[in-house]
Here is the input.
Amino acid sequence: MTLRLGGFKKSPEHSRAVELVQSWTRERFSLAADAPILVSELACANPGCPPLQTVVAFWTEAGDRHHFKVLKPIETIAAGDIPREWIDDALFTEGVGGAGAGCC
Here is the structure.
């Protein structure tokens, strides 16, 4: 799996898509206006993986880190793709004990 950070793409469409995902995440999880939200694309060549997926990570005011994946490129994400706030981070841990999985 290869990390493609959203900040390295320079197209206005990509930048706007990153801003939208950040905004929807901020709203969905009731985050402070200055809470850091990182949005990155991952490329995956493993069988069964979508070619591009998006990972979103954020921190709460208490310093807790949370993250989720959307199995789509950043530019195709819609507000409804952001998970509900009650979702458990454990659902997004890759592999047993966080060791990593072959896909997604």
Observations:
- The chain has one domain: 2-87.
- The beta strands are 2-5, 37-43, 52-59, 65-70.
- The first strand starts at residue 2 and ends at 5.
